[in-house]
Amino acid sequence: MIGVFDSGLGGLTVVKELLKRLPQYKIVYFGDTARTPYGTKSAETVIRYAIEDTKFLLSLSAKIIVVACHTVSSTAMPTLRERFPNIPFFEVVTPSFRKALNLTKNKKVGLIGTRTTVESGIYERLFSEADPEIKLYANPAPLLVPLIEEGWIKKPETRSIVKKYLIPLKMRGIDTLILGCTHYPLLKKVIQEKAGKRIKLVDPSEEVALLVKSYLEENPDVACHFERSEKSPNGEPEIYVSDLTPNFERMAKLFLQRDIKLRKVDLESYLGSREDK
Amino acid sequence: MIGVFDSGLGGLTVVKELLKRLPQYKIVYFGDTARTPYGTKSAETVIRYAIEDTKFLLSLSAKIIVVACHTVSSTAMPTLRERFPNIPFFEVVTPSFRKALNLTKNKKVGLIGTRTTVESGIYERLFSEADPEIKLYANPAPLLVPLIEEGWIKKPETRSIVKKYLIPLKMRGIDTLILGCTHYPLLKKVIQEKAGKRIKLVDPSEEVALLVKSYLEENPDVACHFERSEKSPNGEPEIYVSDLTPNFERMAKLFLQRDIKLRKVDLESYLGSREDK
Questions:
Q1: Which of A13, A33, A231, B66 has its CA 20 to 30 A from that of B46?
Q2: A224 is catalytic
Q3: What is the DSSP secondary structure assignment for residue B134, as one 8-state letter?
């Protein structure tokens, strides 16, 4: 079973890509909608939440964990790997960094993301270790998440705000742009239009799904953990959320582009009652 | 001591009004920045959080509690009053309803707020009980909170989004508009401009501060609980948050319009350790 988590429902863009490439695997998703968003919160708080999210997915027998959240990917990975040493973790930062490294020709790479992701400096570190000549230009784009969650994908205000966020990056002459948030693939068309044809976009949801696929192909011993009985009969992923509203249901449909049942779990009581046992 | 809480920092607009009117009282504020926003979450989750926020303020010896959050005011008050029967609670919905009831002449009142506040239907119930002839026209305005929190107060996109939210209300011919969220007083000028001169705005932060002031004047027995030693020496309120980032510090300054030290508290561990004792 593949466990996927995110601060909210944005990580469902990763589930969508996984379903496309690995339809034979059962996917369990947890969206921490009761505490969403993580992208405005401190690293310490994000790490605490990420540990709880992981524990929940492991309790449902997840064998590998996909962190479908840039904020967690850029702040909590060393702690998660230390706390759960036997679990293969995949995150969204490294595969999008690698893709951008391959794509850029003029060595000028742009990044948009939440404030926490951008301020973590993780992409700077990865690029400077891989090729010190690469310049990374990053701009926090905090309004894109609420605009996407409102479904304001094609509104003129959204286009204008996207343009505003991209201007300083375009002025630097970037040829590659990392979409540093799993919500952003929904705005890909608008972002591509405002960025212009010459800038190549890196979609983290696509990149991490490709990585998980090749990992499962190369590691048949891990893959064999996925017994036939565990496979979902109709290919439906199981989607858990820590809070459920009609608006979250609407958003899940928007992200997954299919009708899906959300199941609510009270994370604190659930984990508390398991630890009591 | 007056305890004030909100899902985040928007409630500091209430603190600002209280400081203006009641400078002799010590104010303790709690902003649940680790779980902000509440306005997109379910009533059940909001109620659970509101109980914890109240417990925290009572543990710091608050004698009255001001709920500076429309989402909590419109969903959690019966539960809070039942759970803490000896504590006088003030909330932001009733005083703004009363003010609008006095102001409206054509009996057409508008409301903007978060999705949870608008969908709670609390204003509809209050108006229909007070005067069934009053028509309330409500429009959720969920993008205003992130725009304000980004400090985009005067940006053209913000003006355009405000205009968009007000169009359906203006078309109904409202003469009074309730700002149903403690963030919105920061956008008062833009909202007034887009609403037009004929529409009177109701500012909930002002209204609840006036109510607390008259309560303390009329109830000297409660007021005498505030001993001189408890008064803040320099009139500074104590501001606690469940998560602290440079951006939250910037926002606190924006809302209070003064420099202020934020103190971080881990609510779950704090309440957990007190309950263990």
A1: A13
A2: no
A3: -
Q: Is B261 exposed, middle or buried (0-12, 13-18, 19+ CB in 10 A)?
A: exposed
ipTM associated with this complex = 0.84
| CATH code of B139's domain | 3.40.50.1860
For residues A222 and A162, membership in a common domain is answered with no
For residues A7 and A34, is the Cβ–Cβ distance under 8 A?
no
List, for residues B111-131, the tens digit of each pLDDT value. 999 888 898 899 999 999 999
Which tokens belong to B57?
A: 């303020």
User: Under an 8 A CB cutoff, do B143 and A142 touch?
Assistant: no
Q: How far is CA A7 from CA A38, A50, A241, B149, B202, in A?
A: 6, 9, 10, 19, 35
What residue numbers bound the domain in which A183 lies? Answer: 93-204
Backbone region of residue A173 per phi and psi (left: phi > 0; alpha: psi in -120 to 50; beta: other values): left
From chain B, the residues in CB contact with A116 under 8 A are: 245
Domains in chain A: how many in total?
2
Q: Which of B47, B48, B247 to mutate to test the interface with A (most CBs of A within 10 A)?
A: B247
User: A157: which chain B residues are within 8 Å (Cβ-Cβ)?
Assistant: 157, 160-161, 164
Select from B187, B204, B221 the last residue of a domain. B204
